[in-house]
Amino acid sequence: MVENAKSSSKKTSAKIQPYPYFNRELSWLAFNRRVLQQAFCERTPLLERLKFLAIVSSNLDEFFEIRVAGLIQQAESEVNEKSADGLDPREQLRRIHSVVASLVEDQYRCWHDILIPSLKKERIHFKTASELTPKELVWLKRYFEKQVFPVLTPLAVDPSHPFPQIGNKTLNVLVELDYPDTPKIKSQIAILPVPRILPRLVRIQPGDTGPRRYIFLSEVIKLCADKLFPGCRILSAKAFRITRNSDLYIDEEEAENLLMKIEEELRNLRRGAAVRLEIETGVDEKLFKALLDNVKLPKEYVFQISGPLNLLRLFSVYEAIDRPSLKDKPFTPAIPSKLENKKNILETVSQDDILLHHPYESFQPVIDFIEQAGIDPNVYAIKQTLYRTSGDSPIIRALIRASQNGKQVTALIELKARFDEANNIQWARQMEEAGVHVVYGIVGLKVHCKCCLIIRKTSKGLQHLAHLGTGNYNPKTARLYTDFSFFTAREYITNEVALLFNSMTGYGRPHQFKHLLVAPYNLHSQIQKLIQRETHNAAKGKPAHIQVQVNSLIDKETINNLYQASQAGVQIDLIVRGICGLVPGLKGISENIRIRSIVGRFLEHPRVLYFHNADGQPEIYLGSADWMPRNFFRRIEVLFPIEDAILRKRLIEDFFPHLWADTGNATELQSNGSYEFPSAPPISSPFSAQSHFLKKQPLS
Hints:
This protein is of the alpha/beta class. Helices cover 36% and strands 22% of the residues.
């Protein structure tokens, strides 16, 4: 997983070369294995373990749709550009297949050997067709006749019936048929596409008071497939699923209407090139070859599954079963003391900075901020970025009401937010109909920053109030992701937020930002300067310390500068949840760097930066950007400073120390690419930072 590669930074060419890097794709798969570990973990409540197993499947789908699809395109086009660790596309694909095969094997081992028996003890049964009782069999056949049979359409595959177009990630059943009355006719192939409208998990006899019993829909269809082919004998029936390239390819310079072009591309996605085939084990070799020939997929992209396809469907069981003892203990997000019993959040923000730590602290003040601005007679305008939001978004409703109340409302919606394109198009049209000025992103850049600006009249003139965040304006994910929300009326910050909005919605050249770090303008260069300042301080014998929490770290110049900082003696503590290209603990290169990943009840999502700055106050930034080339150079991102003394103390003395004290959900990256659990004190039970923050009262 680790090989040598030359640094991409001209500034570092005189230093120790070449530097080592971890492979991006294999690092991501290592993260997904850490997610799978939560499904194995006995400390995790049983139904939560089911959820983690589903998340692994969802993550793998996206990985193949985007990352593997890109590598396949490079390999087929004979593009031999090597990754940072020196691997060409074909070698990366070979290693990915090996790692994914092992990961999937462990995923289904967890399902069959651990979760199914554990669920059975809790009177939650998952059955196969062979395990049905006569009574259950009668009920399921009746269910099939009434609920499934009417919407299935069998598709023959023969010279007069070409192989059908198989949609991306749809459930299908490959059937081999025999005609007993006509021995001269060879066996035939048919495909049963399963409409998405049908539930993939069927609860057997839901009115019974006994144990809950479930069966996957594919099992029901295979069991009753003979009903669709009267006069035929079913020789075999195997479920399969194809994953297709789902990346959008849009020439924004040539697109006259970005919204219409994205809609057109979304319709084309179901016909993208196949990048993975999942099929049940035991399929006849002749049928298997016919399927591969028709989907134009080589064997190395095939995964034979010993169990039900697409364990993502287990989410429906988690949501349907009301068993609090089998789930995480529910919690009520706290309201910070500054906002308790205060109806007007705009007045509060005009006087004090406020920092919220979600989901431990409520996301409701963010909604209140926008809703109150929409009805406040002194508010003239609201400006808002939207990358992803919820299906029934109170943020969208608040912006629409504000526009209807005569406010000037501008919403910058990122239509290119991956997998949310269709939702964002729908929101854009609804807001336009209500009079909101909708801007569809920026040509060549994704708008990923999380910003809201309110312009309000006061006795002293117009005032800007800003909300800046590390996470999306989505109240649902705000209960599932850890993130920070920051409210401020500091003029030097809000004025720059106003300049940022003007540059995003107009044609003006980007302004020089002095306080905000904004990609693609000054974010990357300023982070390098901050790292280099710590390096210079350490070289002079001054205290030097860098602490960072991000989702991903793969930018080579940043990694090279961190290596040099380590060599100078800077202590570097990194919390990197997912992809990490930096190799820690190498003598003479990175022995002063330690890296942890925290995977727990909540998805760790904040980006928090701390630089000790020996000659002044520590500098602390929060924001939306990971340390990746795409975030530095191909997105609009914002990092903002935290300068309130109480809020700074909270981050320095409470936030980072408890992340590093975690021995329950944290694993530490080793120089060989493996992750190991940190050692805990011999007598104490594992400590979870997330549990600590749930119990702790808010300080802001």
